[in-house]
Every structure is written in C-alpha cells, then in structure tokens.
UniProtKB/TrEMBL annotation:
Domain PRKAA1/2 autoinhibitory: 41-86
Region (Disordered): 235-281
SUPFAM superfamilies given in the database record: KA1-like
Protein name: non-specific serine/threonine protein kinase
Keyword hit for Iron-sulfur: no
Enzyme Commission (EC) number: 2.7.11.1
C-alpha cells in the first residue's frame, strides 16, 4: 500500500484477503449469503429501476442474471432492495420497543403530579360534612405525605413573583399601565418613565386616599416585572415603601400602536401625611389591595 507506483500498490481485493485484515472482523461486514433470497427477484424494485432509468424490465432482469456485479442496473436494484430491508427492520424494531415499554412508565406522569395540583384535587373532593370528616382528615394526611415525599425527591416548587411579570417591551407595559389608571379614574405623578406614584381620585378635597408606587424592573434579558408598593404614613418615599404580595400574572398582548402616555395628572403628594391610628392604617392597607386588584384586573382585559 505504500508503493509509489500506483500499479504496484495493493488493491482492495488484496487488502480484504490479507490475514491481518481478516483478524477480529465484525460479523456484519460479511453477512451470510442467503441463496433462497438471492434467487428471488423483487418485482417492485425492478419496476422502480425501470422507472428511474427508463429501461424495459427485461433489460433489468438480464442485468441481474448476468455475472457482472458492477452493472449500473444491478447496483441500483441492490440499493433499492437494501433500503427496503432496512426500513422493514427499523419498523419491526420500533414495534418491539413499543411493546417492551414497562407499564409503570406509562403512568409516570400521574404518579409524579405536582404537589399543589394534588392538594387542589384532594381539597375539591373533601365535603364539609360531619359524616365525611374522618375521610377528609385521612385524605388530607395522605396529601401531606405525598407533598413531603415529593419535596424530598427533589420536585421543584412553582415560582412566585411580586407584581406582574411580562415579556412585552417596557414602553408597551407602561402604556398599558397609564391606560388602566386612566380608565380607573386615578391620579398619578411621574417620577421617571418607569416609576409613577398613583392614587384614587379623592371624592372630596378633605379626603386623603392612600398612595401606591408602580415601578417597572428588568428581571432578565427578556422579561420585566411591574412592582406594587404601598406608600403609607412616613413611608411615602419609594425607597422605603413596603412591597405588596401578588402572584405573577401575564400581561395582555402588545398594543397595536404606541401612543404618548407619559402625561402627568396633577396630584399633590404629601411626603409626610399625618399619623393615623392602627384602624386607619388597616383601612389604608385594604384600600391599597383594592387598588392593586382593580389595576391588575384592568391590565388583564
């Protein structure tokens, strides 16, 4: 094989016949010749060869019966037959793998449901009657055991976020926020394009409704978070405000067009409101939650 003269180099036939080449060879390189299969001519393969090369069937049959294995019609016929055999073997293997699937794996998803979904399903089945109280306790205990087992096995819990999370553009998000505040007849003061302080329009000049801060944060490269903050008592500054707790909620689709939405409605923001008793503070907190619920509901429409 290292001879410079190509006429003196070993041919493929010589290499195959060499003792080094024939040592420890895999069996698939030399499949046994099945005489019964070799003597049977595949009519469909012959017709496919005739269609591809535009030759009569007699010519293809003559090429198969001849002693020339390198005839182009014979090579085409053998390639078609091999492809059909490989396709049949692959189909058989796929069917065997389908029937060899363990039955337990088919119900894997049912056995490893999310613990919170299991809790919801169990709670829906519990009837608040005295007759079913024992059954409800047993179901609750089973649900708790499933939850503890799921947590130990490494099941990830659902993620919760403060505010509203969206993958829209920040300009579109703030446009929807301004549109929602306007539809709710709210007043607001713009601190920057992505941070506003809002409140409900007071019914009388003496009333001082609670204020809340709406600020847009960038969570990652593609998503943003609209955070709600309650501004009560001496916590009127946005930096010292307390965050409200809301589950994440998807924003509506992007608006058809951008509009100028950075207008400012006149609103007096008193940085130091008068101190209020605990009852008034609780009332302000409830009003803050009502404003958040109204704003979230309007944004979700």
């Amino acid at each position: 094989m290292l001879m410079v003269d190509p006429m003196k180099r070993a041919t493929i036939k010589d290499v195959i016949a060499h003792e080094w080449f024939q040592k420890d060879l895999p069996a698939y390189l030399f499949p046994p010749v099945n005489e019964s299969e070799a003597s049977i001519v595949d009519i469909e393969a012959v017709r496919e060869v005739t269609e591809r090369y535009n030759v009569p069937e007699e010519e293809v049959t003559a090429a198969l019966l001849g002693d020339d294995p390198h005839h182009h019609l014979s090579i085409a016929y053998n390639l078609i037959v091999d492809n059909k055999r490989i396709a049949d073997e692959t189909a058989k293997l796929t069917i065997e793998e389908f029937y060899q699937v363990a039955p337990n794996k088919l119900h894997y998803s049912d056995q490893h449901r999310h613990p919170e979904r299991i809790a919801a399903a169990v709670s829906n089945k519990i009837t608040p009657t005295l007759e079913n109280a024992a059954a409800g306790d047993a179901s609750f205990n089973n649900m708790a055991a499933l939850q503890s087992t799921g947590y130990k096995s490494g099941i990830k819990r659902a993620k919760w976020h403060l505010g509203i999370r969206s993958q829209s553009r920040p300009e579109d998000i703030m446009y929807e926020v301004f549109r929602a505040m306007k539809s709710l007849d709210m007043e607001w003061k713009v601190l920057n394009p992505y941070h506003v302080i809002a409140r409900k329009k007071p019914e009388n000049p003496v009333a001082d409704p609670p204020k809340m801060s709406l600020q847009l944060y960038q969570v990652d490269q593609r998503s943003y978070l609209l955070d709600f903050k309650s501004l009560v008592d001496d916590e009127s500054s946005p930096g010292s405000a307390c965050s409200s707790r809301h589950a994440s909620m998807s924003m509506p689709s992007k608006p058809p067009g951008m509009r100028s939405s950075r207008q400012t409605v006149s609103m007096d923001v008193d940085p130091s409101p008068p101190p209020s008793p605990s009852g008034a503070k609780l009332s302000q907190t409830m009003q803050f939650f009502e404003m958040c619920a109204s704003l979230i509901g309007t944004l979700a429409r």
